[in-house]
Write the structure tokens for this entry.
Amino acid sequence: SLNLFRIIQEAVQNTLKYAQASWIKVEFEQADNMNRVLISDNGRFKEREINYDGYGIKNMKNRALDIGGKLELKKEPTGTVVEIKFGTKDEK
């Protein structure tokens, strides 16, 4: 749970620092043996400004891997979405 918290914390911090968003939404979903967390905002997203080699995104991806999951960063018409997918304990 600490890794998941830290991913959410970093995503929210990135939104506040870079995206100039007026809202941030964090959603948790569970279906069958899959969990999903979505952190979305209505901020600006400029692909060329994102440092995929920076510590923040690398740490987020590594933390997702540590919990057996995957992190994706997506541009949506309304803003940016960070998606974390990982399985439940029952799956192992």
User: Anything to note?
Assistant: DSSP finds two helices and four strands in the chain. The CA atoms of residues 4 and 64 lie 7 Å apart.
